[in-house]
């Protein structure tokens, strides 16, 4: 009886300990929900609580400062993890479709589409290089940069032999491709592998 | 012979008197089933109560096992959902949160689970979707549904069958990954015309709390229209667009990318909420089964003791009848 009771207590204690993990990635939230939406909802559907909207779960960004800040705040996110979140750096170089673009604090607000290439983050004397697949990058006027990519690997983890093999394979596929879809796929493969090659050498 | 018949008659009247006492706490379903068996049988049968106890114990074991399974699945998918939370934030930072936008073609994407026994989250999603449908209805406006998951499909097909554009089920046959979600998003974007997409899902806040959430994604034309008219998207024009093609093409790519990123996060959050809801539902179910088992044990003991007492009374009254 007592043994059972003590087992119950320890079970309850461990479960509460396990589930009291802090959710670091959200809920420092300022509940800035959309007031128009909530009003319109309450008018038509008074019995049901309005659902939350994404802005309720996000910390608001600071306003544009009057003088150019010294550091750039970078958020580099992937579907599987946030590589960098809120990190203060000096400069990032992003591989936009129009070429490598350097972003410094005080950069003009930009929306840039990314092509497969090397993203380098400069912090003092450290440079971290990632090879990113496509994605988007937003630079805001308040010196915040958001880079969203699908995949990113640090450049030192790329295997040169596999890159060469892939490049020859896709060039061959491109020459033998017949339909548009196949051509497009082979072209993408060639682009990505040549970019990988350039990343390894450059 | 007559005595036995009378005794039997007496017992038929006696059992309804005896059985309600132990069965006060018990559901009424047991009482009718005891009567036909006990008429003509020498003692009140404990077999029925014993069978019921066995089945309740089995159910308790099953729900406990389901709770453990849900707990382990929850742990795995919770980390993935938390990691994917950074994915939609840049889009909201750029484009704002335009849930109250007024558009002609609304498409409501309802995300739900495939399997049941997960509490009320699927009903909540469907309720919110129906409410959004009502909120955005009006002249010249049309609302369509895209349904992900069996449970929402079952509920929405009943009254909104003509509004459903696309149904996708069995999302979690293979573990969720971005490629699968982007293929799904591509499917939806190709087949459904929309001005605004509203994704309804349950956001995982903690093991016991799931918040229904609506994420809105505007088509590029609506984005341009809102940017021109000012308001939250008014600052969008200040952004320079770096892309090989025209600004509208880049905005188109942006909208599609935003949709697939937000979908990925939504699907993961909903899956996490499903596991959490299932865990708490199975937990309360096993606790309930435990309570039922306690009550049944009491009934069983009382019934057993009553039948022993009845036997004793018979023997003693028989013996005293012989003597006196």
What order do the helices and strands come in, and which of them pair?
The complex is a heterodimer of chains A (202) and B (324).
Chain A: H1 2-19, H2 35-44, E1 72-77, E2 82-89, E3 91-96, E4 99-103, E5 110-114, E6 117-123, E7 126-132, E8 135-139, E9 144-149, E10 152-154, H3 160-176, H4 180-201
Parallel strand pairs in A: 1-9
Antiparallel strand pairs in A: 1-2, 3-4, 3-6, 5-8, 6-7, 7-10, 8-9
Helix pairs in contact in A: 3-4
Chain B: H1 2-18, H2 30-38, H3 47-83, H4 89-95, E1 105-111, H5 121-135, E2 142-148, H6 150-159, E3 164-168, H7 178-191, E4 196-206, E5 209-218, H8 220-229, E6 240-242, H9 247-323
Parallel strand pairs in B: 1-2, 1-4, 2-3
Antiparallel strand pairs in B: 4-5
Helix pairs in contact in B: 3-9, 5-6, 7-9
If you had to describe this structure to a student in words, what would you say it looks like?
The complex is a heterodimer of chains A (202) and B (324). Chain A has 202 residues and is an alpha+beta fold. Chain A is 33% helix and 29% strand. Chain A contains four helices and ten strands; from the N terminus they run ααββββββββββαα. In chain A, the strands form two sheets. A five-stranded mixed β-sheet of chain A has the order 2-1-9-8-5, with no helix packed on it. Chain A has a five-stranded antiparallel β-sheet with strand order 4-3-6-7-10. The termini of chain A are far apart. With 324 residues, chain B is an alpha/beta fold. Chain B has nine helices and six strands; from the N terminus they run ααααβαβαβαββαβα. In chain B, strands 3-2-1-4-5 form a five-stranded mixed β-sheet, sandwiched between helices. In chain B, strand 2, helix 6 and strand 3 form a beta-alpha-beta unit. In chain B, helix 3 packs antiparallel against helix 9, helix 5 packs across helix 6 and helix 7 packs across helix 9. The two termini of chain B are 20 Å apart. At the A-B interface, helix 2, strand 5, strand 8 and strand 9 of A face helix 3, helix 4, helix 5, strand 4 and strand 5 of B.
């Amino acid at each position: 009886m007592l043994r059972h009771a003590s087992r119950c207590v320890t079970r309850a204690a461990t479960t509460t300990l396990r589930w009291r993990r802090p959710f670091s990635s959200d809920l420092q939230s300022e509940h800035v929900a959309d007031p128009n939406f909530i009003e319109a909802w309450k008018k038509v559907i008074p019995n049901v609580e309005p659902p939350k909207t994404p802005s309720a779960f996000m910390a608001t960004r600071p306003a544009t400062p009057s003088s150019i800040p010294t550091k750039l705040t970078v958020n580099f996110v992937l579907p599987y993890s946030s590589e960098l979140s809120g990190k203060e750096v000096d400069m990032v170089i992003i591989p936009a479709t129009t070429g490598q673009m350097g972003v410094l604090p005080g950069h003009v607000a930009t929306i840039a589409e990314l092509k497969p290439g090397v993203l380098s983050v400069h912090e003092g004397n450290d440079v971290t290089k990632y090879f990113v697949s496509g994605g988007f990058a937003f630079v805001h006027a308040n010196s915040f940069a958001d880079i969203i990519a699908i995949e990113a690997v640090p450049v030192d983890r790329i295997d040169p032999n596999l890159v060469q093999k892939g490049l020859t394979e896709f060039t061959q596929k491109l020459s033998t491709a017949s339909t548009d879809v196949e051509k497009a796929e082979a072209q993408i493969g060639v682009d990505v592998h040549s970019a990988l090659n350039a990343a390894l050498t450059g | 012979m007559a005595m036995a018949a009378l005794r039997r008659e007496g017992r038929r009247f006696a059992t309804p008197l005896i059985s309600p006492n132990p069965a006060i706490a018990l559901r009424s379903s047991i009482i009718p089933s005891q009567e036909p068996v006990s008429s003509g049988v020498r003692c009140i049968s404990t077999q029925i109560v014993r069978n019921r106890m066995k089945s309740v114990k089995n159910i308790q074991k099953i729900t406990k096992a389901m709770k453990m399974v849900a707990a382990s699945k929850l742990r795995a998918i919770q980390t993935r959902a938390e990691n994917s939370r950074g994915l939609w934030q840049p889009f909201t930072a750029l484009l704002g949160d335009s849930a109250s936008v007024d558009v002609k073609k609304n498409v409501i994407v309802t995300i739900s689970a495939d399997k049941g026994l997960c509490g009320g989250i699927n009903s909540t999603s469907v309720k919110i979707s129906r409410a959004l449908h009502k909120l955005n209805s009006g002249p010249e406006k049309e609302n369509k549904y895209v349904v992900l998951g069996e449970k929402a499909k079952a509920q929405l097909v009943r009254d909104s069958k003509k509004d459903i554009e696309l149904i996708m089920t069995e999302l979690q046959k293979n573990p969720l990954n971005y490629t699968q979600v982007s293929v799904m998003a591509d499917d939806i974007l190709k087949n459904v015309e929309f001005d605004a997409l509203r994704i309804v899902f349950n956001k995982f806040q903690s093991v016991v709390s799931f918040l229904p959430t609506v994420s809105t994604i505007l088509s590029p034309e609506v984005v341009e229209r809102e940017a021109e008219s000012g308001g939250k998207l008014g600052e969008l024009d200040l952004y320079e667009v770096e892309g090989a093609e025209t600004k509208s093409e880049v905005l188109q790519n942006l909208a599609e990318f935003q949709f697939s990123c937000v979908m990925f996060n939504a699907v993961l959050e909903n899956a996490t909420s499903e596991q959490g809801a299932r865990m708490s539902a199975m937990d309360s179910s096993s606790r309930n089964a435990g309570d039922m088992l306690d009550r049944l044990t009491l009934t069983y003991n009382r019934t057993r003791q009553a039948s022993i007492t009845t036997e004793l009374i018979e023997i003693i009254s028989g013996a005293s009848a012989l003597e006196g």
